[in-house]
Amino acid sequence: MTFTATVFIGTSLDGYIARPDDDIHWLTSRGEQAGDMGFFGFLESVDAVIMGRNTYEKVIGFGEENWHYGDRHVGVLSTTLPEGADPRITVYRDLDGLVADLDERGVKHVYPDGGRLIQSFIRAGRVDRFIISVAPVLIGAGHRLFGDLPHDIPLRLDSVSDAGGGFAQLRYTVERRQRA
Amino acid sequence: MTFTATVFIGTSLDGYIARPDDDIHWLTSRGEQAGDMGFFGFLESVDAVIMGRNTYEKVIGFGEENWHYGDRHVGVLSTTLPEGADPRITVYRDLDGLVADLDERGVKHVYPDGGRLIQSFIRAGRVDRFIISVAPVLIGAGHRLFGDLPHDIPLRLDSVSDAGGGFAQLRYTVERRQRA
């Protein structure tokens, strides 16, 4: 038995998660009006949070009081971050090592966060569900949620809703013939 | 008084309207299961259809019996298409000439179709509404609906719905302080 992973993220209608300079004010300023859009309920169902180096730097920049992960296992995938950098996190050097360690820990539900990490998870066939909150704006440039793929990934639409503040929330399950 | 324009289009969840080789089978095969998703009702509200050369070629490739525009004014924006190529269409050489002619004809509601034409309309501030049917698939590469923009375009979410066949349909109005 291995873990499942759910991406929970906000994008612009044109598919960006941040501007070219990493700014997300266009998202967070609108998000404040919308409330948590189910995020904290989702987080309750998660027992491991995985992020890339850039996302980790952003999260710690929010300050100690905005570390929402409690006692959950938090992993950071980075080839450069020192292993003992932060007692709250485990540093992983590659995706295979990360996946093996999560399995060994008996983790059931993973929340992968951050653009490049999510794309790595998608390409490795390790994303099971998407919860995407679409902000009502075209920003025209930036970092995209979805990257190139070697083949189609078919999805099942689980639900679509008006999440408030102008956000549409789309929930999908990745269709698989069988789990690896 | 000038016309308003509504984009009515299908995309993959990753924002593509066609594969790199223009294939849209991934969209149409799913669309057949979903029905018209409101397209023919929408078309009833339209009195002019505008498309680029590529989209025009595709539409005529579907055959005479699939020309759904009836007596509506149909414009094709192309620098190369001969003016008398098709008695059903008016050929325009540039966007300014197109807009001026539509205004002169007293057109009220325009349906711009085709990727590059839609992007030109967006950048010119000439799109008023979007009706986007999101197909439940990531295709990973192709022609994107939205292109680069010189500034943000804020939107108002009008509705979000499950359109059947796995499609989510998002309807937006472009927010404007004032119309040009």
Q: What does this 3D model show about the protein?
A:
- 2 copies of one chain form a homodimer.
- Chain A is α/β, with parallel strands linked by helices and 180 residues long.
- Chain A has one domain (4-148): Dihydrofolate Reductase, subunit A (3-Layer(aba) Sandwich), CATH 3.40.430.10.
- Helix content of chain A is 24%, strand content 34%.
- Chain A has 5 helices and 11 strands.
- In chain A, α3 links the parallel β3 and β4 (73-77).
- The longest helix of chain A has 10 residues, at 25-34.
- Chains A, B: This is Dihydrofolate reductase.
- Chains A, B: Its EC number is 1.5.1.3.
- Chains A, B: Residues 6-165 form the Bacterial bifunctional deaminase-reductase C-terminal domain.
Please outline the helices and strands.
Two copies of one chain form a homodimer.
Chain A: E1 4-12, E2 16-18, H1 25-34, H2 39-44, E3 48-52, H3 53-61, E4 73-77, E5 89-92, H4 95-104, E6 109-113, H5 115-123, E7 129-135, E8 137-138, E9 143-144, E10 153-164, E11 167-174
Parallel strand pairs in A: 1-6, 1-7, 3-4, 3-6, 4-5
Antiparallel strand pairs in A: 2-9, 7-11, 10-11
